[in-house]
Amino acid sequence: MTSALSAAPLDADAFRALLRRQAATVTVVTAPGSPPVGFTATSFTSVSLRPPLVSFCLDRGSSSWPTLERAAHVGVHLLGEDQHEVARTFATSGIDRFAAHTGWRYGPHGVPLLDSPAAWLLCRVTGRVAAGDHAIVLAEPLHGQYAQGAAPLIYHMGRYASVAQPAPEQRAA
């Protein structure tokens, strides 16, 4: 069987269109600074259990990158299904995101912590890896908390959405 598929990588528009079909949890990552920074990300994932590690990606051309490039600690907030406006605020460029969103406080290490997410993690940054025009940031969770029964906010096909019925929580055996 011969293939007519090209060995060249997908162009950016085709790649974006393809990945829009993948549902992703919506997170807001925050870091201390003067002023503090925060941005909406759908690239958050768990990496390892031993030791606990998570990752997220950030465009190195973004206004948040200079602070994230130096940050020793970050907050990762998994947004709940009712937090569309929080996601939009932290996805909007050219505004003071913390002035526009007043539901937050300073936590340990000066990390801004948002009020009432479905879950949050306070993390120590352990590494940064250049990956194309982005950086993959690796972080070790130091503290965390979750709201029992909270349904996550997801991003799919260019829109915020929620799961129809969250799965019941189960403990691993």
From TrEMBL:
Molecular function (Gene Ontology), one example: FMN binding
SMART domains registered for this protein in UniProt: Flavin_Reduct (SM00903)
Domain Flavin reductase like: start-end pairs: 19-162
Source organism, top-level taxon: Bacteria
Signal sequence segment: none
UniProt-listed InterPro entries: Flavin_Rdtase-like_dom (IPR002563), NADH-dep_flavin_reductase (IPR050268), Split_barrel_FMN-bd (IPR012349)
Protein name stated in the entry: Flavin-dependent reductase
Species for this entry: Phytohabitans suffuscus
